[in-house]
Amino acid sequence: MLAFLQRFANAFELGTCWSCGYSKVAAASLCPYCEEALPRWYPRCCQHLSDIEQHLVAEQKPCRYWYGALRWEPQVQQLITQFKFRYKAELAPLLANQLAAHLRLCYREEPLPDCVVAVPMTQQAWRKRGFHQTALLARHVSVALELPYIAGGLRKIRAVPMQHMASKALRWENSRGSQLALQDFSGCTVAVVDDVLSTGATMMAAADALYKKGARAVDAWAVVYNQHD
Ligand SMILES: [Zn+2]
User: Fold this and answer.
1) pLDDT exceeds 70 at position 14
2) Gene3D superfamilies, per this entry (predicted)?
């Protein structure tokens, strides 16, 4: 019934824009003005995150590429807050499409990775939130880019304290060894999807786990890159 009403609303453009509340847009989307005004990054904006030698321990290898689609500015903060903390899972396709469009630009001169995985969350956090936000994003991105999505490819084996409360050094310390890859990724290039990328500590925990299981290269993909953090 709900799906029917949604289709009906979409057909007649009876939804409201997620950002400004302007009516008459397709449901779960942005109006053309807000879509146009989204603060976007250029392709190589976060490549400097590879330069993290001081945080790496022996045998650690950084991600090959770091890509973030949107800037951490008020319009984007509002969308992410709705998505993550107000439990609006229906925002996943909107956010994932922004990332997919950015990635098409980033990889226009070379092949996309072989598969996509999501940054994992603990069972406890998952139950609390009611949905797995990075897995939802990763699924939508993999469909948009026609890549295989490896469900449950990474597992969180240790809870990490709220990262935005911790200092940078502590974030690296907390994240190290917190994730485990559950499959063999020998010879594969693997993309890891997260919602917000800041220091890169969480991504590096994912990359470590994937390199340990044979990944040839790991690429970091995030909907938002928070340059201020
Ligand atoms: Zn709008």
Assistant:
1) no
2) 3.40.50.2020
